[in-house]
Request: fold
Amino acid sequence: AMYAHTLRRQIVATQLANDVVDFMGITFVASLQQSTGAEPAAIVRACVVAREVFDLPRLWQEVQALDNRVAAASQLEVLTDLQRLARLGTRWFIRNRGEGWSPQALAETFRERVREVRECMPALLAGEQRAAWEARRADLLEAGLPAELAATLAGSAMEIAALGIVDAAMGGNVPVRTTAAISFALNDSLGFYGFGKQLSALPVSSHWEALARESFLDELDWQVREVVAWVAGGSGDDDPGLVLSRWMAAQAQAVQRWRSTLDAIRSATVREYAMYAVAIRSLPELSRRRAPGGPP
Reply:
């Protein structure tokens, strides 16, 4: 009946506007307009896709259903995490899919693959990411969340990486789990996760600094995806750990320069935006293809 209604566009638009404001807040669209330059309709389309891809309506309802069983403060904290995932997902689809795509087709393309990353992620996390996931899960269990929901929500801060993993897997025709294993191993070996946390924590004192921080995060996401796609693309049927070891050996000089840059930032007493700009500019070295006749 809805599709045959004379005012179907107006009815759907009103419902979507209500949903976006209720779920994301009144300033969400205006904020993304300012930072991405996208039109409101494009932002809403991307938000709908992100919401469906990450199965956020179901998770949101499960958290709300814990009323009077879990402290309200814990519920609000988790809902804020889900809002953040939706915002980052919306921004990702705006930046990486442009115009002219079907929300339904895009959601169907990503949904099952992202779910696969979510399911295998706890087994693949290592180092700092593993510690963060375990600590968050322990906090949620202590707050009274069911074990399965706590395990899922513990990874919400890292789950935005699933979009880049799926993109790299589809681009190279590589299994999602293989690509995810390589991606999380790279995060641990090259400190991408910790570097991203530093970028997110940069203090912002002006509009331009806010835009710079978002630009740094966008570039980090893109460059990490390039590295993951390159490494995963040559994996074949080999063990992901072996593939990564071969790549690290072949890229030893670039890897060492990147690690030296991270060490210099960590040891700095005052961290400035210029330091992170230099670090971001050095990332393409890691995804630069070898010249013919170079090391295997």
